[in-house]
Amino acid sequence: MVMNINNMLLKAKNPILWTFDSKCDAFAFEEYTKPNGANAKRKIVSAKDVPCRLSVMQLTNTTMEQNAANRLHMTHKLFAPADAPITGGSRLIVNGVKYVTTEEPMKYVTHIEVGVNRDEWL
Fold this sequence. Notes:
The protein is built from two helices and seven strands; from the N terminus they run ααβββββββ. By secondary structure, it is mainly β. It has a single domain (11-118), classed as Thrombin, subunit H, CATH 2.40.10. It has a six-stranded antiparallel beta barrel with strand order 1-2-3-7-5-4. Strand 4 (91-94) and strand 5 form a beta hairpin. It is flat. InterPro entries: XkdH-like_sf.
């Protein structure tokens, strides 16, 4: 019996989802027309309470001066279910902390992975 690789990977979906220890809310921007006819964008909730997990993707020392305290910049990677409506430029709130996606998600059969940075969007 020949088994499709995607079918095999789908069997790993539940163990992967089990590792998601956080929840996130995702926000997107929708274009609309104002009453005066001008085009604009408004923030909408695209998903609430999406299971997810954050991991440190990159840690960079941004200190330029010698003998100064280190200033570290962290870039995180967010893991979420494959059907999560998260795209490049999405705004996220994970455990009360605001993030913005830095790229389009890498999509796999079992999950998505996307780079995120902390941000103070409104």
